[in-house]
Amino acid sequence: MADAPNTTAHTEKIHVEPHPSPSDAPSGPSKGELKRLAKQAEKDKKAAEKAAKQAELNAAKAAADVDYASQNYGPLPLNQSQERTGRERIKIDTLTTADVGKSVLYNVVDVSEIAQGSKMVFLHLRQRLSSIQALVAQTPHTVSKQMVKWSGSIDSESIVLVEGVCQAPMEEVKSVTVGNVEVLIHKLFTIMDLALGYPKLSDHFKIHVIAGVDGGLPFSFEDASRPEEEYEKEDAKFNKVHLDTRLNSRVFDLRTPTNQAIFTLQAAVTRFFREYLETNHFLDIHSPKLQGAATESGASVFKVGYFKGNAFLAQSPQLAKQMAIAADFERVYEIGPVFRAENSFTHRHMTEFTGLDLEMTIEEHYHEVLELLDSMLIHIFKGLTTQYAKEIEVIQKQFPAEIFKFKEKTPRLGWKDGLAMLKEAGVEIGEFEDLSTEQEKLLGKLVYEKYDTDYYILDKFPTAVRPFYTMPDAADPNYSNSYDFFMRGEEILSGAQRIHDPAFLTKRMVECGVDPATMRGYLDAFKLGAPPHGGGGIGLERVVMLFLKVGNIRRASMFPRDPRRLEP
Length: 568
What we know:
19 strands
C-alpha cells in the first residue's frame, strides 16, 4: 500500500507582546518640570501686564501730545483783505475793573515775555501809550502746553492778535499803565497764519502773531525808554541809545511811549492852531513849494533843476500868503513844509521843517496881527496843558523839565527895552545888530526872572535885520513893524506888517539886493491894489521841542532832515 500522505500541518511560532497594564503607564511631568512651567506662566503674565501698561502709557502720552489748542495760536496768513468779520477791536486804555469777565479781542503792537514757567507765561502787551499784563496758562481742552511754550517764544516787538477774558490780577500790576485788569489769553496769533478764519465769539481765547520781527532789534526798547539822567549815573549798567542811533532806526525808536506822546502833542499843536484860526474866520490855503525866485535870500535857498531852467524850494509860503491877501481872501493860513539851505548842525535847525503860517489884513495897526498871534499861541498852550497832561507826564519821565510857564497877558518888550536888559547884564551889542543865540537865551532868562514866564514877545526889530518886504516904522525907519515870539529863550515865531505899496516894495527890493525882475508875478499882485496886511510864521517842531524841553529839535521831528541826514 502506498504510503499515506502526512496530513499533520507545520506550525510556525508567533511571538505576541503582552498589553501593558494600567499600572505600567507614564506618571506625567515631574515636579521640576511643573515648577519650570509655573515660572514661565508667571513671566508671561507679567510681560503681558507690562505690555498693557506700556500701551496705556503710550496712549496717554499720545493723548498728551495731541495739541488740542492748535487752532488757537500761531502765525496768521498775510493780510490781503481776504475777509472782513466786522468784530470790534478794543483799546487797552478803555479797560477797567468793570470789564472783568468780559471777552475781548484786540491787536497789540508789542508783546514781550516778562515771566515764564512750564505751564504758564506772562506777557506785557502794548498799544501806543497804554500797556497791560496778560497770562497764557495751560488749561484742559483750551490752552495746551504747546501753546504755552509757543507764546513764550514770540519775539519781542511782534504784532499780535489777542483774544481772551478780562480778570482781576492777584494784585495791581505796577509795570503797566492798566494795572487793575489783566487778560487771560486763550487765543494768540501773530498776524501770518490763521487758516480757519477768525474765531467765533464763544470760542474766545486766542493769540496769533500779526507781524513778527525779521532779524534782531537795533537796540533795547527798555534802554530807549530810560530817563536821560539814568545814563549819567556812575553805576549805570545799560547802554545809552544816542540820538543818531535812534534816528537811524527811527521806526523802532518811535514806538517808545515818550515818542508816542511827543507826536500826539505835535498833532495837537496843529489842531489847536487850525481850530483857533478857523474860529476867527481864516481860510486854509495850499501854496506851491516850487518857486521861480528866493523868498528870503539866495544864501539859504535850495536850487533845483526845473526842466531847462532852475527853480527854488520855498523858504516859506510868504509870497503866496501876501498874494492871497491881494486876491481879497482877507485872512489865510497854511500848514506845510518849509525848506532852508542852512548848513547848520545846532539843536534847533533843520533843512526841512513844518511851518504854521498866517496872513491877515490890517484895519489900523499891525499890533492887531501881533495880538491875534499871541492869543492863538495862548490857546495852544492852554489846550496842551489841560487836555494832554497824561502825555506830558509820560514825556517828563524821560525828559524831566519844569512845566512850561505863560501868562494870561504876555510880556511885550520893545527892541530897545530888550537891549537895555542885556546891557544891564553886561552884554555888549549894537543898536541895530541882530541877537545871537546866546543873547536870545540870556534875554529869555532875564525875562523869566523878572516876569516868571517862559513866553514873551520882542517888538520893533531893526529894519536892517528883517526881510525886504517888512514895513519900516513910520517914526523911525531904522526900526520896523516886526516882532519875534520866544519860548524858553528861543525864537519860535517871526512876523511883521508887510509892505503893500508896489513902488515902496520895489525900492526895498533893490536896497536889499533882490532883483525886482525875478519877482515880477509877486510885484504885479500889489499893482492891482493890496490892503495893509501882516502875519507870521511858526516852526512847529521848535514849539514842541521848547514846550516839552526835549533838548533837540530832531526829537520833535518824525523823520528829521539836516545837512547830514536825508533818510530814513
